[in-house]
Write a structure and sequence with these properties.
Blueprint (H helix, E strand, L loop, with lengths): L2 H11 L6 E3 L4 H6 L3 H10 L2 E3 L8 H6 L11 H4 L2 H21 L5 H13 L5 H10 L9
Antiparallel strand pairs: 1-2
Length: 144
Amino acid sequence: MLEFQKRLAADLLKCGVSRVKFDPDRLDEIESAITRAEMRRLIQDGAVTKLPARGVSRARVERKKKRGPGSKKGGKYSIVSRKRMWINRVRAQRAYLKKLREQGLLERRNYRLLYSYVKAGNFKSTASLKEFIKLHRMTEVPPK
């Protein structure tokens, strides 16, 4: 019945035939439109409209998502590699040393020594670095 008009409107609206919607009150007017100019006028008047695009729903995927430790696939080092763990650890330790040096709590000689220890992997965390500094009394007591 209105197949030609639908196809024409779809072409003008740059969408698929299924997204073209006709105003049910103006069907006789739409049926008489056989030229592109007439169809353009109907689109401007609002008798022919373009429906919004339908997407693929993500609800099913979202429902399926797992959370928590049981959802992790792969071994310990497939999630965070050994190298990435090393980088994170060394960066944190070096940042801590830099902070102490800038505050004037660490002598240059001690800073260099500790820096080389960090590079050698002597400390497994910043906590163990702090413990080492405290044990060997390497920080200067800040003036009161």
